[in-house]
């Protein structure tokens, strides 16, 4: 591998992945949406081209890709991005449509590998058919469609990896942390004698570990491979204790695990709020309590032994993410969102 063509290399996860490739002597060219996050260091030596992949002609895209041999798609949106109905169309636009142009071109140009940033909800969708997750959750259906599409290009000469990413912690200066949403949710319970939350838990890792996993997947994958990603598995109770410490509150605050059916009683509020704001939810909010009741954990050896990921301080990463989120919420700073500027029009290529 000599040079990576990356979509989203200036983002939180893309920039950390680019760092890993460059550290191993691999050049990186990225297509990204402006502006750069204010104060965020970009990997030294990364070639940045400000252009919307969806607005490139096929000829422009082929020319940009012609001197590379590995594709990394570190862009797209997750279930927290809000859109009007039908929400699946937006997931298709950002997460699938670009790949329907990039993957055939990568194959045509004889790329060695491709790494796609996906979601661990895809693993859940595949492994719990009884929950009918793809039928009830447009976001999960879109991620499953994304994975199934890219895998059809894999063969002995072209490896295709999907990182099924879970909760990720870390910050990028100038970009709004995704965890402001969590802060807003749990603050509503601050005046209650306890925090009421589901009993399950989640896989997680740091932004640096995402970069390491990306490099490992690009260089070690054979054929088509989905990696359920986890470097740490943590129950919600344990996670919330760290969150409360980061907020300057007592870690001994009572956290009461509630049954899914009890949490579901409060969920119609979200439906009313979405309807009022014209939002079509990518997740079935009535099913969400039952999803969050699951301990969505994976074998961490996969990351450390197969992809060469190294240990990191997950508690420090959570703490930093929450502290920055609290500061942003308190000060009302205008920062870049995780999704780029949709209306960007470049002056030239």
Question: What would your notes on this structure say?
Answer:
This protein is α/β, with parallel strands linked by helices. The protein has 14 helices and 13 strands. The strands form three sheets. The chain has a seven-stranded parallel beta sheet, sandwiched between helices. Strands 7, 9, 11 and 13 form a four-stranded mixed beta sheet that branches. A two-stranded parallel ribbon has the order 8-12. The protein is globular, with a radius of gyration of 20 Å. The two termini are 26 Å apart. The C terminus is likely disordered.
- Low-confidence residue ranges: 340-349
Percent of residues in helices comes to 40-55%
Strand order of the largest sheet: 3-2-1-4-5-6-10
Structural class category: alpha/beta
Strand content: 15-25%
Number of E strands: 13
Distance between the termini: 26 Å
Largest sheet entry: 7 strands, parallel
Radius of gyration: 20 Å
Categorize the overall geometry: globular
Q: What average pLDDT do the residues reach?
A: 92
Number of contiguous helices? 14
């Amino acid at each position: 591998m000599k040079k990576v063509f990356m979509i989203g290399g200036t983002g939180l996860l893309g920039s950390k992945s680019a760092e890993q490739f460059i550290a191993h002597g691999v050049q990186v060219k990225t297509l990204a949406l402006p502006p750069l996050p204010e104060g965020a260091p970009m990997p030294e030596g990364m070639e940045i081209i400000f252009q919307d992949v969806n607005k490139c002609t096929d000829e422009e895209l082929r020319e940009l890709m012609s001197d590379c041999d590995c594709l990394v798609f570190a862009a797209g949106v997750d279930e927290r991005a809000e859109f009007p109905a039908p929400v699946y169309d937006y997931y298709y636009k950002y997460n699938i449509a670009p790949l329907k142009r990039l993957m055939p071109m990568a194959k045509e140009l004889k790329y060695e590998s491709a790494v796609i940033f996906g979601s661990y909800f895809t693993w859940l969708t595949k492994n719990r058919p009884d929950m009918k997750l793809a039928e009830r959750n447009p976001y999960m259906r879109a991620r499953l469609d994304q994975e199934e599409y890219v895998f059809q290009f894999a063969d002995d000469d072209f490896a295709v990896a999907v990182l099924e990413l879970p909760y990720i912690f870390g910050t990028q200066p100038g970009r709004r942390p995704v965890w402001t949403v969590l802060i807003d949710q749990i603050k509503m319970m601050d005046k209650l004698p306890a925090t009421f939350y589901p009993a399950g838990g989640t896989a997680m890792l740091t932004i640096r570990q995402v970069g390491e996993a990306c490099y490992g997947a690009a260089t070690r994958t054979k054929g088509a491979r989905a990696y359920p990603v986890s470097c740490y598995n943590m129950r919600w109770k344990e996670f919330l204790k760290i969150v409360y410490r980061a907020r300057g509150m007592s870690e001994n605050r009572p956290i009461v695990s509630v049954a899914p059916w009890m949490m579901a009683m409060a969920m119609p509020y979200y439906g009313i709020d979405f309807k009022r704001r014209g939002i079509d939810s990518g997740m079935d909010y009535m099913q969400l309590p039952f999803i969050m009741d699951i301990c969505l954990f994976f074998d961490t050896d996969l990351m450390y032994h197969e992809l060469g990921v190294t240990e990191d301080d997950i508690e420090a990463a959570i703490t930093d993410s929450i502290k920055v989120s609290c500061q942003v919420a308190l000060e009302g700073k205008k920062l870049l969102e995780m999704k780029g500027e949709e209306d960007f029009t470049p002056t030239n290529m």
